[in-house]
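Message: Study each token:
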Amino acid sequence: MSNKSHESDVAFIKALAELLNDNDLTELSVKREYGEDDTLQVRVSRRGETVTTHYAPPPAPAYAPPPAAAPAAAAPAAEDPASHPGAVTSPMVGTVYMQAEPGAPAFVSVGTQVSEGDTLLIIEAMKTMNHIPAPRGGTVKRILIEDGAAVEYGAPLMIIE
């Protein structure tokens, strides 16, 4: 990590806070990479009116002991849905809507057959409704989010097999 401070970071964080307020957002997360071991991650949130900054730590030494293995019994319960080969992940931060408008039928439900390109759900980001298409055809096996829930970039939304 570089010992020098980045003077532009303070202005950058202030600009993010203004962007949050001006666009009536609840949270904004950004990562800036200045070099190999010099990264700034900023999360600005209205939930607790907190501002968090984090500079990436230097890489771990090559002689570090390997991490302890998890108990075999805990492995199935701790399976990460995002690592499932049929996982559909969120391409953006926003609010999930399972139907086109309140009271309308959901785009999909468990057991629905979908074709590549079919709309699975909508993610609202910055007051824009973004239709999320099926990346492949198959059957919806699991829906991992609820209508109206906030999602992060990369969060698993559903499983299609």
